[in-house]
Each structure stands twice: as C-alpha cells, then as structure tokens.
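Annotated sample (chain length 156).
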Amino acid sequence: MPISQALVTRYFQLLVTRQFTEAERELERVKQKMQKTEWNRGYFRALYGMYLSRKNSATDDYAFFSKLDLTDKVNLHNYRKEFLEHMGNGLHGDFDRGFFSAWADCMRIIARMDVPSPTVNGKADGEEEKIETLRSDKSQATIANFLKTQPDKEEE
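Output written by the structure step:
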C-alpha cells in the first residue's frame, strides 16, 4: 500500500505552521499505514528528520530546514528538482531514493502553500525598529525604549 499523500500533505502543513503535537500524530499515522520496505524506511526517516529539524530549528544552525526560506518559491522548486535527480539516480539504494522522495514531496507541497513572511516582534523581515539613544552616549538605549520591549504585567 503506497503512502497516503493526504496524510503526508497534512504533515508538511503542520510542520510549516509549527504544530508539532499534531504533526507527531500524523507522522505516527503515516508509520502505521506504510509497508516495511527499504524505500518506505528512507521516506519515513526523512519525515522524522524534518520533524526534529523544524522543532529544534532555533538551536541547529546547520540543519537544512532552519536555513530554508519557505516563501521563496523559485528556490523551493530548484531544491525539488535536485531532490528528484537524486531520487532517480540508480546509484542510490532504495532507502536513499525514499529519503530524497520525501524531501521532493516536501518542497512540492511547501511551494504550493501560502506561507506568510517571517516576522520578528510584529515586524516583517527587513523592517528594523529604530532604537532611541541618549544624545551623549550613542551606545545606551533610553528607558522608554526598554519599556516598549517588556511585556505588560496585566497581559500575563
């Protein structure tokens, strides 16, 4: 029985939106429904690796997923083509071809999603917040600027 594309698509959507608990449940469903073949083992290992990489993206600067711009459709398409080339390469074993197939599917699905641009403190990437500094010492921020960045006690 082939791997359900609906389950895999849902899994990738959950990863992108960082809903890790639900993603883990979908991953378990995928595992239960797949046959025990080398290709499927490689596919599943890639899915599990994506989960770990995305979940720990703040601490892993070397992971592919943490460096991936999910809004850049051209690069996602190019990555997909590269993964498809590896998948079709006869020098790779079934495990590797399954692994690259999962990544190709991931790039295809993410490229079709409408992923919002990442924001930091409510500002889009590239938008910088001006920091008010003291006139006499340009390296010191004012207390008003500091208080803007602190959460209100009433909101907690």
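Annotation: The beta strands are 119-120, 123-124.
Annotation: The helical segments are 5-16, 20-33, 38-55, 64-67, 73-88, 94-112, 143-149.
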